[in-house]
Amino acid sequence: MVHNSDLSGRVSDAPSNNWVYRILPRGLWPYAQLARWDRPIGWQLLMWPCFWSAAVAANAAQQIGTFSWSTLLFHLFLFFAGSVAMRGAGCTYNDLVDHKIDMAVARTRSRPLPSGRVTRMQAKIFIVVQALAGLVVLLCFNSFAILLGLSSLVFVAIYPFAKRFTNWPQFFLGLAFSWGALMGWAAQFGSLSVAPVLIYGAAIVWTIGYDTIYAHMDKDDDVAVGIGSTALLFGDRTHGWLVALYGTAAVFLFLAFAIANINPLGYAGLIVATAMLFYQIKALDIGNVEKCLALFKSNNRVGLLIFAGLMLPPIFG
User: Fold this and answer.
1) List of residues 6+ apart from 103 with CB closer than 8 A
2) How many angstroms separate the CA atoms of 50 and 300, rounded?
3) 35-44 pLDDT, tens per residue?
4) How far apart are CA 217 and CA 237, in angstroms?
5) DSSP SS3 for 5
6) Alpha-carbon distance 31 to 4, whole Å?
7) Maximum CA pair distance of the chain?
8) What is the DSSP letter of 198?
């Protein structure tokens, strides 16, 4: 059966009016879809832990007189570029691993690999291109941060397989997706401390929370193909689990800020973001796909608010 989305060159589970389809030549559409350039929420959520860590490190550097706006802005640019490149490489790798599963699920059947618009070899070459772009970004950091960044590839490699052997694939996603929480501090100081480790822990449980909401959109398909998720594991207890997960994230971030001696101004964004997280829980209807998607995407604003709050002390301090 040929889907209309296949004929149009678009995919059924992404917006069809994205800049990808207005600007890029049609021949590049399948690659943009593999990298999820038409769905920016992924690289945004990958980027925010990097930005939080870089901002906390900037606050700490300001206290000891080593803060530099040019260094911070350069690091933020690198984390943005790296997030786009590595999220794209990760998604392409994930699509290769899930090729057969995606062919069996209506929502993903129109993606480039299952629809046949890209071959497996082309996808592998595209992974290499994106990974090289990520490597160029990584090599701009200090040697400690470079080695730390390379070590994240262990979790990146494991994640696509996690749903085959556990109901906690969101935990493995958190391990990989939150690595930037360590990188921001490492880029500034060439070492780690308790504060970035706490930010990493906060980002992991935040990721489990928001991806559980996302997974509720796919739970019927997940059951049909026999893969696990926290949405299936938590079921009707999802709201209670989200209280625990988001609450833990807020507490860990608060402790990280306190240990790094963040100016009280820096907590403003965290307070508003925490309120937004608990609004998500209150508003969540696990049976409403559109609502789940909207609440999942709202985590981009959560990440932005936390970062914006952290930038207040360097700006006004």
Assistant:
1) 109, 114
2) 13
3) 999 899 999 9
4) 16
5) helix
6) 19
7) 64
8) H
Q: Within 10 A of 121 (CB to CB), how many other CB atoms are there? A: 8
Query: Token pair 């999802």 is at which residue?
Result: 238
For residue range 272-301, list pLDDT tens digits in order: 999 999 999 999 999 999 999 999 999 999
Mean pLDDT of the chain: 93
pTM above 0.70, yes or no: yes
User: pLDDT for 118-128, tens place per residue?
Assistant: 999 999 999 99
* Coil, strand or helix at 281: helix
**Dihedrals phi, psi of 10, to nearest 5 degrees:** -100, 175
Given CA atoms 156, 157, 161, 167 in this order, what sign does their dihedral have? negative
pLDDT tens per residue, range 183-237: 999 999 999 999 999 999 999 999 999 999 999 998 888 888 889 999 999 999 9
| C-alpha distance from residue 40 to each of 19, 45, 83, 114, 117 (Å) | 11, 9, 10, 22, 22
Query: Which segments of the chain does DSSP mark as H helices, in order?
Result: 4-8, 19-23, 29-34, 41-63, 69-97, 99-104, 120-138, 143-151, 153-165, 169-177, 180-189, 194-215, 219-225, 230-234, 238-259, 268-283, 289-297, 299-316
Measure the CA–CA gap between 39 and 111, rounded to whole angstroms: 13
* HEC letters along 70-120: HHHHHHHHHHHHHHHHHHHHHHHHHHHHCHHHHHHCCCCCCCCCCCCCCCH
| pLDDT confidence of residue 2 | 37
What is the C-alpha to C-alpha distance for residues 143 and 138, in angstroms, rounded to an integer? 9
Give the Cα separation of 137 and 77 in Å (integer): 9
Q: Is 146 left (phi over 0), alpha (psi -120 to 50) or beta?
A: alpha
6 vs 219: CA distance, rounded Å: 24
The answer to whether residues 71 and 112 touch, using CB atoms and an 8 Å cutoff, is: no
